Amino acid sequence: METDFIAVGRIVGTHGTRGTVKVRPYSGIPERFLNLKTVYLFLETGVTGFV
Fold first, then answer.
1. What is the rounded CA–CA span in Å between residue 18 and residue 9?
2. pTM of the predicted protein model
3. Which residues are within 8 A (CB) of 22 and not within 5 positions of it... i.e. 6 or more apart?
4. Which distant-in-sequence residues (6+ apart) come within 8 Å of 49 by Cβ?
5. Are residues 13 and 21 in contact, defined by beta-carbon separation less than 8 angstroms?
6. Which of these, 6, 46, 38, lies nearest to 25 by C-alpha position?
7. How far apart are alpha carbons 8 and 5 in whole angstroms?
8. Of 21, 24, 31, 37, which sits most exposed with the smallest number of CB within 10 A?
């Protein structure tokens, strides 16, 4: 099964010491992403999924 991905933002910095990142959303209505169950982070070394 092929999965399509949609870019929802760009990492612009970090926050704290537990791996939290600051994301600048591509949407003008960032609240639409509050109910996402899974977000995938694309890195040069691969893809990591987290909830």
1. 20
2. 0.62
3. 11, 12, 13, 14, 15
4. 38, 39, 40, 41
5. yes
6. 6
7. 9
8. 37
